[in-house]
Amino acid sequence: MTDSTQLNPNTPLRIIFAGTPDFAASSLQAVLDKQAVNHYDVVAVYTQPDRPAGRGQKLVASPVKQLALEHDIPVYQPLNFKDEADRKTLAKLDADIMIVAAYGLILPKTVLDTPKLGCINVHASLLPRWRGAAPIHRAVIAGDSITGITIMQMDVGLDTGDMLLKKECDIKPEDTSGSLHDRLALLGGDALIDGLEAIRHGHAKPEKQNEDLTCYAEKLTKQEGEVNWSLDASIISRRIRGLLPWPGAYTQTPSGVMKIHAARLLDTQDQDFECGEITMVSKEGIVVATGKGSILITELQFPGGKRMSVQDALNGKFKEQLQLGKTLGSQE
């Protein structure tokens, strides 16, 4: 985007939207809700190719594609933009601006430079903190008390472009990545509309990111979900919440992997217990000792079973794994 590029606020703003998951669909919905009042014209949607999902592994359209089809918006799903034909198709759309939200592709400079005003990104953190793939999860795991949305002018780096607008969001002590995601998705839509209007009316003030304050939100792995009970309870609690709903936290038992769906931090234990030892069993849950402090597990899931409360689990076939004195986790 350059200062010399000016658009008539009364002329429909030609928009290409690029995104894939629910988070992105919230931003697209915000644009569609305002298109009549703000004179937006979404000329095309770009999203990831349909992926197999479920037990039948049938191809499923992304949430963004589903929303676009509901509104009769043309949908494009290139694997990447290496093919010249895909780049020509993009250019023919003659867009004023391209909005990118959790698209899942790294855009080359040729694509970034195609729209008249370039490409802007709806990023789920307060940049330059948590650049990268999993900013929501990493913020919860790190114990951040605040996060937010940054509307950013995209460049060829990984979330390194100039910041155009920020909106803050508190991280609550009980937040999981799932609950925080839902609030940020809505906030992202609000921030996007404010950002679009600022750009359109020439009020946007690009701000360089402070490279000294950067940190990276690395992609999540399933292996991260295994609980190390020797860590402090506060760290374990944040990891459990930060890894919900995916990949989820889990621990080893003699009956196999036990998934932990809900847990909370307790005060430090009064006695010396082995890390991973079950120190209390009640209808409310099981208390597990850690390197410092305790965790109360309230919902779990055993192999072949469904998600359930601890009370239900104690009435089932896995109750022996949840008895007082039992130790969870890999024992070497």
UniProtKB/TrEMBL annotation:
Q: Which SUPFAM superfamilies match?
A: FMT C-terminal domain-like (SSF50486), Formyltransferase (SSF53328)
Which keywords accompany this UniProt record? Protein biosynthesis, Transferase
Q: Name the enzyme's class.
A: transferase
* Gene Ontology CC: one annotated term: cytosol
Q: Which domain of life is it from?
A: Bacteria
The answer to whether UniProt assigns keyword Membrane to this entry is: no
Give the Formyl transferase C-terminal domain ranges.
219-317
Recorded hits in PANTHER family, A to Z, give: METHIONYL-TRNA FORMYLTRANSFERASE, METHIONYL-TRNA FORMYLTRANSFERASE, MITOCHONDRIAL
Q: Tell me, what does this protein do in biology? A: Attaches a formyl group to the free amino group of methionyl-tRNA(fMet). The formyl group appears to play a dual role in the initiator identity of N-formylmethionyl-tRNA by promoting its recognition by IF2 and preventing the misappropriation of this tRNA by the elongation apparatus.
Q: Which family does it belong to?
A: Belongs to the Fmt family.
Name it: Methionyl-tRNA formyltransferase
**Which species?**
Marinomonas gallaica
Per the record, the gene is fmt
